[in-house]
Structure prediction request, 132 residues.
Amino acid sequence: MIATKSKMFKMTGRLGIITATLFCAGSAFGQDPAKKDSVSTIPAEVMTVIKPSCMPCHSNEGRDKPKAKVNFSVWEQYNPMEKTMLAASILDEVKKGSMPPKGFLKSHPEVALSETQIAQIAQWCESLKAKP
Ligand code: HEC
Prediction:
């Protein structure tokens, strides 16, 4: 009887740990991205621009070389210093008109950045540079 009781206790103890683990994982998944500030998360209006124009290459779906330079799929995982440096680099590329690359625009002219879109990205980058 005592043995059964301690076995029962072990089982409930283990269950408790499993439940706690699941709970933690669940709350991490359940985070509301809208609640995050524009530093850690890419703002929705910037994402609308970046998704078709940059993410075919600079995302988990992209090729190794552009992905290694900047991967917008994992933006939140860059540390503040990396974000600041990337912001400067993105700003530079976009202002020079070097990104998206000319070759890509030949086959995908619809993803060329408009003046407004360049301004949107620039504004976001400036805000990141201001908050290291
Ligand atoms: C067709 C694929 C493609 C698209 C689309 C594209 N890039 Fe790139 N990007 C590249 C490649 C390839 C490199 C690496 C170039 C090199 O190393 O010479 C690069 C490099 C970069 C770099 C690093 C530059 C450096 O010299 O360190 C930045 C920043 C960048 N891209 C931003 C962007 C942004 C912002 C967009 C969207 C507006 C974009 N890219 C769209 C392919 C792409």
Observations:
- The mean pLDDT is 82.
- The two ends are 63 Å apart (CA to CA).
- Residues 53-54, 56-58, 65-66, 69-70, 89-90, 93-94, 99-101, 104, 113 surround heme C (CB under 6 Å).
- The CA atoms of residues 32 and 41 lie 11 Å apart.
